[in-house]
Structure formats: structure tokens, C-alpha cells
Amino acid sequence: MFNMIIAGVGGQGSILASHIFADAAIRTSVTNGDNDIKVRVGETFGAAMRGGSVASHIKIGSDVYSPLVPEDKADVILGLEPLEKLRVGVSYIAPGGIVIMNIRKCKSVDVKTGQAEYPSISDIIDSFKKLNANVITLDATEIAIKAGTAKAMNVVMLGALAACQKNLVPRKILEGVIKDRVPPKTIEVNLKAFELGFNKVSEDLRR
Amino acid sequence: MNVVASSRINEKVLLMGNEAIARGAIEAGVEVITAYPGTPSSEIVETLAEIANDFEYYVEWSINEKIAFEIAAGASLIGARSLVAMKNAGLNVAMDTFMTLPYTGIKGGMVIVVADDPGAHYSSNEQDTRLAALYAEIPCLEPANQQEAKEMTKEAFELSETLELPIFLRSVTRLSHASGDVILREIKKQSKKIGFNKHWKIPYRWNVYGPPGAVSKHRWLHLQMEKSKNIVEESKFNTFTLPINTNIGIVASGLGASYAAEAISELGLKEKLAFIKLGFANPLPEEKLRKILKGLKKLIVIEEGDPVIERQIRSFAQDTFTEVEIFGKERKQILNPYGELNVDCVAEGISKAIGLQVKENQKRSNIKKEIQKMISHRSSTLCAGCPHLGTYWAVKKALQDRKGVHIVNGDIGCYEQGGYGVFSHKINPTDDNSKTYSISSPCEILDTLYVMGSGIGMAMGQSQAGYKDGKILAVAGDSTFFHATLPAVVNAVYTQADITYLVLDNSWTCMTGHQPSPTTGRGTTGEKVKVIDIPKITEAIGITCIKVVDPYNIEESIQAIQEAIDFKGPSVVILQRECALQVQRREKYKNPQTFIDRDKCTGCKKCLSFGCPAITFDSKNKVAGIDSLLCVDCGLCNQICSFGAIALKKGNNYV
């Protein structure tokens, strides 16, 4: 069984990213003839259209039934936003799990008005290390801007994920689903974003 | 192309629960589909509206759930297959017709889909509508996953026609809003057997008062439910895994069965205890359950919501010769009777019931507790450029100028975020006069908040009870105006209640995902329709003090609100401005022109208290800033700044 959570803030595209990955997992299982592989995506988001905490749970395997990842059982947490990553990660990351984190902060209105504090990136990384997780960081927003639009940050993160999970869902299948699921006019930018995210993490892992 | 409309049979695809229900309806040859938007149910009709051109069915966003229900029922009485979808609270609106329709039954298959919200993620309450299926005495199906959601929807039409009863399909947030693998099957052609027979099988079939009267029709309903008891005993949606050497059993329904299946395998109990998975759970397969009960010492009931099945099993266990102990949400409690389930709490509950020791890693939980301390709350906000931001700032200013403890009655919608937020920690709930805090942010304008339209009625109650300590207001959106407040406006005029009703008209039903409303000018499938004019309606009803303003103009909005609250008798202020997100979707917005003049900014943070997420603050240099990714140049913050530090460069689209 493979469990993953994508955490972010409303409007960042975490739900689309989770659907792309889950769809790719289904296509992979069909390609490999694994008929008992099941895929579930559970979504948690608040009432607001924008700006709230969002977490998508993705589960792939033969013994998968429910849409939510149990506590301490997430093999990977993909964080589109550092604080949201920590909020979800602290409860769900499995010991030895991988944490992939966009380091670009999205400050809440609570932090902006001085009612709350935003922890430092190094404190967030240390927290995951204390929970025995492996942390990979990247400025996915910056990379997405290089690819053509900050909005493709979620796809940069999918590229980063693909670089860590080469066996679960092949890169080719993921790219195929991206083509099918993003708005037609943005296919090129998104494929570029995916490649840049993939290359960045592949290089970091080689080092 | 939307995969829900796909003709690729036997293909395995990823579908959201709501999409799976939509697909099931198409596969069954559905002919009429209705709903009022309500999270987590909205995507059923949203999907069917999107692909409507590929099919022959009729689909509509109705004005409210009662009307949606009646349209589906009316279609069914003349033989059409119909589906009506709503959220938990929506059923309360449809309740009158819902309770009486089963007395006559229906003709064309009718499926009532209700999406409950355990955990109250998007709802005012956690009501378990399976109780409504019991109340109305109709069969209820509970899917455990997306594949079943599709199969059950399809099967429900057949079942409905066999029993001549509407069928209740109960979904929950974690099913409707979760996705899973679903295998597509053939799409059935519509039967098109439409016709009317006043005395179909029973005299005065479609008239509950018609001879021999309502009691006789109630008796007929009971006979039909007896028939459904036979069907449920053989239903493929109920599965029984019964190992020989066990005296422990689990009965789990709907999504609860999915959590239970995972918990069982996690605890290493697979094939070691009896596992009864119920999908067709009203009526219960009582005969089979009775037999199983006799061999058990312990029975654990797992269901999402109230202990509906647990109570029924306990009730018939009484007259079954058994010493079984029943664990669930009451008496031998292993699960909370509130909140939602997950694998962890279900595994813990099962362990507790059968006396398994659960290992807890104390060191890891301590580390987690430490880390949790640094995770600050992320309050939800209105969007950048949201017209409600302007409205709430104007309400706040208008009321601050008038002495007293004013009451603002709220409503459900995006604007409900005017009722809670980042400043709520200042409130002391033990204070007798708890409204002593001043209105200091757009996040604490609303004082009461219950359900759609309830604020207007409550405002009238406050007025008629003689409240004189301050002004009495109520807010509601344009979609709510039509859904739930028209009779209230008539009532206010008829009784001359001294209240002010603010209609926050942003032309869409936004919070549920931007469905069209009668103010949009678009119909369900995007066709052009006439806008229904709220000012003219209020005038026709007899409101004499009506103000129409643009909430992007704060001064004018304050003035309009003050004139309305100073007016004796019922008054209405309509604050009209289209949802900023919809404008952006249509007119791609680039490079906002709003900027902060760093020389003029004093760092007073007044603009931050306004609550727009596009306003940032550089605490090192003590100056405000504009987030260019979010800002839409609405021009609201520059009206708020006391130092003229926020300005617009030339060439913006809005002001």
C-alpha cells in the first residue's frame, strides 16, 4: 500500500495535483494488468473558496478501501506550502517517510495581522527530522515562474514527486495525464514545469 | 471530454463520488434531474449540467430543495426516471413533500440522493438523514465507495420501479468528495414511457386525501416495505464474511464499512471475525442478522453518523435468543456519537471492544505535541476583491456611527465568514452581555448564524419582542433571497417589522462552486435567461425603503445602510457587485495596478484589519504591501487607508 498526502492552501491546485497522480496510478495498474489495485483520493478543505487549508489523501494498493490515510502512515507528504505541510505532516508522516516541500510561504491573515506567528523554514525542517522523515526542499514557485506561470507550482511538485517515486507511477504516464487534465492552452507550460521539478529533485538526489 | 459522459465501456477511470452518482444515473437512463447547490452534493448536478448536450435528459438548478424535490416527483408520477440531489440540510427544506410522497408512491424510478456531512466540514450540523429515510418509511442505500455509488444509483432506479417507492441514497462528504476507481458500464436508453393515469393500480393514486384516504395509503406503504424486506435479504449490496471459529462480529454500513475493512486488516483480524457489510440498510436484512447474532458473544456496529443500525439491531436482539453484547455509539460506547469516523478511531474502537492492547509510541506523541505548538491557525477569509469585504466594512462603519448594541443576523454562504475569524479569541463566553466587544474587523460582523434565510425571521422576532437597544439587521445572498427569504420579506411588510435586510447580491451561488442563480442571467446549462430583478420584487411586495448600491463604493454603501437602518419599518439594501472570482475567470487579469506609497504608509495596519488576503505587511520596515498574485484592483483598500497611501496606477478595469 502506498499512502500520500498533498497539503496546501486553497487555490494552489493541490486537488488537481492529487487527481493527476491518482489517475496516473489507475492507468499504471491497467497497463500492468494489476486488477486488484484500488485507488482512493480523499479531500479535506474548508468552506472558503480561497485561502483555507487543503489536504488531499491518496491511497494506492490492493487493501485500500477508505479515502483517508491513517495517522503515521503517509509514505510521502507533498507540501505546496510549508506551514500546511507541517500541519498535516505532524500527524500523518510515517517514520522513514519522505517529505517534499515547497519553501514558498503563504502567510495567513492571522500571521499578517500579527495575531499568530509563522514558524521558520528551518524549524519546520527540524520538526520533520525529529519525526524521522527525510526532507527534500525546493522553491517550486520560483521554478514554476521559470516555466511560465506561478500557477504551475503544483505540477512542479508533481515532477519533484516523480523524481522520488520512479517505480510507482512512470513519468510517461504522469505526463500523459497532465496533458489530459490541465486546460489545453497550458499543456506546454505544465509539461515544462513538470520537467523542471523532476530535474531539480533528480539532481539533488544524485548529490 | 468529461469522462462521466464516456462511452468507453468497461474502462476503469477515476471518479469523484458525486461524478459516480451522476454516471450511475446516466447508465440507468435518467430523464429528469434537479437540485439546489449544497456542498458536498453539488457536483452531481454540476457534472450532469456540464455534459447535458451529449444526452437527452432535462437538468436544472432549482430555486430550493423543496421545488427540486417536487419537480423530480412530478416527473416520476407520469413515468419519467428522475433524480433529485441535495445536501443534508437541503432535505429539511424538502421535508414536507418528502414525508408525504411515499404514501402514494411513484411510477418512474425516483432516486433521492442526500449527501450528509459528518464532521460538519461544510454544514451547520451533522444530521444523519438515514433517520429521515426511516421517518418517511422508504428504502435506503449506503454506498461504501465510488464504484458502489455508481452501481447503487443505477440499481436504485430499478428498485424504485419494483417497489413503486422513491429510493433514498445516502452519501457522505468523504464519499461524495472523495475519488476512486470506477468501471464504466453501458448507458441505458431512456424509456420514454411518459403518460398519466389518475387511478394507476389504486383509486386516486396521486391524491393522498382521495378515497379511501391517507390511512389506507399509509397501509399500502407498509405493504411495500414488507416486500422490500424480502428484497434486502437477497441484496448483492449486503455481504457476509462468516468464518466458522469466531464469536465476534462486525456490522458496518456505507463508508463505515470501508473504514472497518481497513481497520480489520490493520489489526490482523482478517478472516478471524464475522464481517457484515451493509449497503442496503433500510430495512435491515433482519432474518440473516438474527441468525448471525445467535452465534456471537460480541457485535460491533460501525456506521457514519447516528447509531441508526445499532439501535435497530439492539431492538430485535431483545427478542432473539442471544447473549450478544452490542458495541457502538451508545451504551457500550466505543465510538463517538458525533464527528466523523476514520481508520484510526475505528481500529481503536474495535480493539477496545475485543480487549486488544493498543501500543502507543509515547516518545513520538510527545514530539508531535511539541511541534503542534508552533502550528498557527489559518483562518478562512473572503477572497481578494470580494464585494462582501466592502459590504462588511460599510456595515461596520454604518453601525459604529449609531449608538447601541446592534444585532446583525447572518446567513449561510461565502458571507458567513463575516461571522467568525481571526479576532474571535477576544471573546469571553462567560460575559453576561457578551456583545461588549466592539466590531473591529469584517470577521466579526454577524451575531447569529443558523441556516439559509433564518436571519430574516429572527430579526423580525427581535423587532416584535421589542428590542430597543440597537438596530436590527439581517443579511442574505442573492441565491438565498430566492431560496428562503421571499415569504419572510412578505411577512416583514405584512407585520411592519422594524428591520433592515441587506441582500448581498454577487450574481452567483458562489460558496458551492459558482452555480448560476436567478440573478446571473444564465440558466443551468449556460443558456442566456432573463435576470430576475430583486429591487423590483421587493418593491412589488411593498417595501418602501429600498436602496441599491455598489459595495465597491464604501461611502455610498455606508450612506445607504444608514438611511435604511434609520427608517422605521422594514427596509432593504441591495448591494450589487459580481463575485470577483467570476470576473477574473472571464477577464484574465494581469499585473494589478494597486500599489502602496511607502512614503505615505505609516504602518497603522488599518488596511490589514480590512481582511483582504491580497494585503501584506512587511514587519521589518513597518509598511503594508500588495500581493500582486492575488490583487484584482477592486479599489476597496484605497478607500480605507486614512493616509492616502494606497493608490491605483492608470488603466485598471474596475473603478
TL;DR?
With 207 residues, chain A is an alpha/beta fold. Helix content of chain A is 46%, strand content 22%. With 655 residues, chain B is an alpha/beta fold.
Largest sheet of chain B: 7 strands, mixed
Average pLDDT value of chain A? 92
Give the helix proportion of chain B (percent range): 25-40%
Strand content of chain B: 15-25%
Could you estimate the helical fraction of the residues of chain A in percent? 40-55%
**Secondary structure tally, helices of chain A:** 8
Task: Describe this structure as you would to a colleague.
The complex is a heterodimer of chains A (207) and B (655). By secondary structure, chain A is α/β, with parallel strands linked by helices. Chain A contains eight helices and six strands, in the order E-H-E-E-E-H-E-H-H-E-H-H-H-H. In chain A, strand 2 and strand 3 form a beta hairpin. The two termini of chain A are 29 Å apart. The relative contact order of chain A is 0.16. The model of chain A has no long low-confidence stretch (mean pLDDT 92). The model of chain B has no long low-confidence stretch (mean pLDDT 93). Helix content of chain B is 35%, strand content 17%. The two termini of chain B are 38 Å apart. In chain B, the strands form seven sheets. Chain B has a seven-stranded mixed β-sheet with strand order 3-2-4-5-7-6-12, sandwiched between helices. A six-stranded mixed β-sheet of chain B has the order 9-11-10-13-14-15, sandwiched between helices. A five-stranded parallel β-sheet of chain B has the order 16-17-18-22-21, with helices on both faces. In chain B, helix 14 (387-400) packs across helix 18 (554-566) and helix 15 (454-464) runs parallel beside helix 16. Chain B is globular. Chains A and B meet through helix 1, strand 2, helix 2, helix 3 and helix 4 of A and strand 1, strand 8, helix 9, helix 12 and helix 13 of B.
